[in-house]
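User: Okay, second chain of the day. Same drill as before: sequence in, structure tokens out.
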Amino acid sequence: MSRSKWKGPFIEKSILKKKLKSWSRKSTVLPFLLGDSLAVYNGYKFVKIKITEDMLGHKLGEFSLTRTEFFYKQTKNK
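Assistant: Same drill. Structure tokens below.
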């Protein structure tokens, strides 16, 4: 479910102050952030993100993945 249009996009106050680190994955990427770099917390560590034009309107959490891919170790057959 998306946020209603009359409320406008959500952005954390700390991001408005141009902080380098953010725990707010729910904040929307707005045009004044273009070209900036942010470190967004994914629950384990901070992931550095460079904001580009393609990211406008999306949430910060979409770019700092919380899960890693798991691969089984392949063994050689004798």
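The chain is about 5% helix and 15% strand.

User: Thanks, on to the next one.
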